[in-house]
Amino acid sequence: MSKNITMRHIRESTGSEFGPGRIVKVLEECYAADHIPCSNPVLAEQRTFADGDSLFWAQYCFASPIIGARGQVLFDHRRVDPRSLADHPLLNPAYLSDNWNKMQKGALPVPSAYVDALADLARAETQDPLTGRRLAWSVPLNTIKEQGINDVGSVSNAGNTQFATAFLGLMGKERPSYLSRHKEVRGDRIVLWYHLDDASQEDALGRVSVFNYSNDLIGDGNLGNKNARLFGVPFGAEGATQNFSGLETQIVGESPSVDAILAEVCRGIQDWDPRTTPLTGDHFRPYLASLFKQKQ
Prior knowledge:
The protein is an alpha+beta fold. The chain has 2 domains: 7-234, no CATH class; 238-294, no CATH class. The chain has helices at 20-32, 40-49, 55-58, 93-99, 112-124, 141-146, 155-158, 162-168, 174-186, 196-200, 238-243, 258-270, 281-288; strands at 11-13, 35-37, 61-69, 72-76, 108-109, 136-140, 151-154, 189-193, 205-211, 216-221, 230-234, 249-251, 292-294. Strand 9 and strand 10 form a beta hairpin. Helix 1 packs antiparallel against helix 4, helix 2 packs across helix 9 and helix 12 (258-270) crosses helix 13.
């Protein structure tokens, strides 16, 4: 059993269409099921605890949007709010449909206000209050070039690059844990790839990051790629998912409802004293004990 949220909470959206119908359809399916697309940190965590032959390693998965503009590469790891999809243009079916004819080599122009908001978040080092993880990361294009991105390298070298840090978006011990697991499953080879021309443009271009089924962590995902798919978690539960990830768990009966998880997480937050207690999985353990039990 995974140390993370179980596969019964993860919903795969996929299809066989080429072009805009593909990604628009899977996004619409995801939101219609009250799920939201997994961000890079969530997929990285799933991979860390998943078997090497699981879907997370064996499939090509779209994840967090990546924006290139004016010499900067911005990674957007925010949780999607389907009630405010205007804040997430590259994960917004309506925006994709309306702007598909502006596609440039698999990327789409994005509003300047979106880029400015991400840049502000990256500069402020704003964190998700539930997970403690950065919401947005920024890497200068010249740094990406200097660190030898767009090449095959070793896992140990990748751990020291700003691109890998920004791509995975994990904090503390989580990033080395992912890279260690990557080495176990794929060997020491890892490919960090980004479409360098995007950030050289004056107008902002956006793509999605991709966890490939080979050695790749790709920052140049083509929005029209027919092989891409999304994994989603219940809307509002992603924070609860990650805070519960330190436990060996199994489901008690049917999967807990999103409302039940949220109710317990809210109780945990209300009782949290930031002066004395870190907001980690251990803090939420007693609140979620009625929904989950430890694996025997």
